[in-house]
């Protein structure tokens, strides 16, 4: 019996980035859903079960840090791994992003190999 493919929610307002990430993930067998805003992503999370969230930090309206904090404060969502994506990885901002509750942080433009390695490590954490 085969395991069901992992479902990933991509919250990203840039259509080109959405398309690229979707192509990479679907090519690896992941199921992908996209949301253009944090608010749309939070609505999708209420109706659909996801195994991981790719969260752009610079979103219109509610930003990715605030959305991450809302997810972490929602009991049935708080344990979903969140990988933050940002084009602005200056030192002070990195700490603020990590403090919001993300499980990992990657800078854009994304490196496909690094993205896939990071996803693998989030889906297969080392035993503690």
TrEMBL record:
This is Signal transduction histidine-protein kinase BarA. SUPFAM superfamilies: CheY-like. Gene3D superfamilies: 3.40.50.2300. PROSITE patterns: RESPONSE_REGULATORY. It comes from Teredinibacter turnerae (strain ATCC 39867 / T7901). GO terms for molecular function: protein histidine kinase activity. Residues 7-123 form the Response regulatory domain. PANTHER family: HISTIDINE KINASE, HYBRID SIGNAL TRANSDUCTION HISTIDINE KINASE J. One of its GO terms (biological process) is phosphorelay signal transduction system. The modification 4-aspartylphosphate is found at residue 56. Its EC number is 2.7.13.3. Keywords: Kinase, Phosphoprotein, Transferase. It is an enzyme of class 2 (transferase).
